[in-house]
Amino acid sequence: MFRYLSIFLFFCVKSHCSFLTLNRMWLFWTTVHQVWQQTPFHPISVMKKHGFGHFVGIDGSEAMLEMARESGLYQDMKHSLLGEEPLPVHWAASFDVIVIVGALSVGQVPVCMVRQLCKSAKPGGYICMTTRSNQDNVEYKAALESELRQMEEEGLWTRVEVTEVKDWERAVSEQEDGYISGAVYLYKKLRA
Known about the structure:
about 30% helix, alpha/beta, Rossmann fold, single chain, about 30% strand
């Protein structure tokens, strides 16, 4: 079983206000990380308990979107291969939290998409991203981290936390056994 969210990307809006405390975000992330293997939709259930009420999902697979529809947890879903088309313009500065898990890696979502993720977050919103740290993804991870630093230098966001996780997910290539490591990045958007 893979340890990443089936929906490549989801966005959420707090139902009562647009404020999210760091403690709530970190509580959300640690809870999600602990239960990731139980069900791909559990993170949204956790977020609902913390006052989030509107969830938007994106995936490149119609089959995964159908599973998401059947869960009843998402209010809106979009079929899209990130990087082949931009995120909708009307999403700019719309979301309190953006989470992308299991898609920022070589051959999947291009590094340039992190700027669009940042644009979609409200000022003060959080962007949580993950990538693999295995052999196949070394160059991608270096390019991703370079872009994250560049965006911080430009004053678009600030780094809240970066955590390296030893046993992130089960290895899937023939060159690796057991589990591979990965990284979790949490950033806070500073301005529109």
